[in-house]
Amino acid sequence: MTDHILIRYGELALKKSNRKQFINRINKSIKRALEGYENLEFDPRGLRFYIILNNNPYLDEIIEILKKIPGIYSFSVVSKCNSNIDDIVNLAEKLLREEFKQSMKTIKVDTNRGDKHFPMTSLDITKEVSRQLFRRIEGLKADVHNPELTLHLDVRFEGTFIFTNIIMGMGGMPSGSIGKVMLMVSGGIDSVVAGYLAIKKGMAVEAVHFAAPPYTSDLAIQKVIDLLEKLTPYTEYQSINLHIVPFTEIQTKIYECCREDYGITIMRRMMYRITTKLAEKHKCLAILNGESIGQVASQTLESMATIGEVTSMPVIRPLATFDKSEIIKIATSIDTYDISIRPYEDCCTVFVPKHPQIKPLNTKAFEEENKFEFNELIDKAVNETNTLVIKSSKHLDLFNQNDDIF
Ligand code: ATP
Ligand code: MG
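^ thats the input. predicted complex w/ adenosine-5'-triphosphate below
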């Protein structure tokens, strides 16, 4: 009976010139995400998109998948009948009796007449359908201001679509429509949330993680993999490339050669340099990370300036002004929080100085880091970077066929 899903697009109304391209992209994402489901038909119609269910038994799963597709504003499970009053009333009656099994309640009928040739106005349709429904169904009452249920009638040339629910999608822009960014991902709470927000806003994401074995363990990498896996359903191709950079040698050099209070500043400058190289190599237009102003010593405005000095790429920090509680709320909603709080050692936490500089100077950082040949080490780290393809289906392809990740 609920034989269609009607999908409404999000912010697209604002972007007139790109609208067609964006709609095509969302439609493709929807088809890709639902690839495994048999018997579905897809029917794009301008500003609407219908999925014809053909009795597919996995409606609940399909709804969950649609909630994760950027660019979908909302959707409804709908039933279709011919566009004439008798058929509309019959189907509406059937739906209401199903919906209100126990006792009849208050409703409002809301009509949208897309078919301007239909011989009645939308107000007349509402009145006539309501009149007949109240006559047929005992106990059903009208309440136009605060109804327990709104019966939506969408009267179109190809048929009338009736629905009683509107499910909110995630909004945002279609996956991959805004270009690609390189996400610096740690095993913490913030960076994966930053990744989610970027994907929601239409960015394609690749990820880079710095690992410092043996100071950091494989469990830390597994954590990053598990976190990114949670993001894959939101992406255009249901997968994310993760670049794992061996960072031990650089960290050790910083520890041995540089002023202790500049350790974190220099470490982050090295991360930014390597991320920039990887971003260029993989055609990313910007760096993305989970930095939030004032959270730790390396995230004061002075630190950000001195660290950002080493890259000419734009650095996007979606969480810059967020409170931790706001970040945690999103992490919980995307199901990453419990993974993020698993105990682990990040390369940032292994070599933490007792009193890190909160106002590091660019000149000083430059002087300190030039106490070793960092350019060579950076090139070496980039060359020895391994790439994993993270997919939701839980299987991993190792690009570089090494026995181990390092
Ligand atoms: P998160 O919750 O993401 O770990 P955080 O609050 O722990 O963030 P920091 O550890 O100071 O903050 O790191 C700030 C940002 O730097 C992270 O959000 C992430 O984008 C990046 N970053 C930190 N550690 C790594 C790492 N090992 N590999 C890649 N990026 C990292
Ligand atoms: Mg961290």
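Residues 394-406 have pLDDT under 50 and may be disordered.
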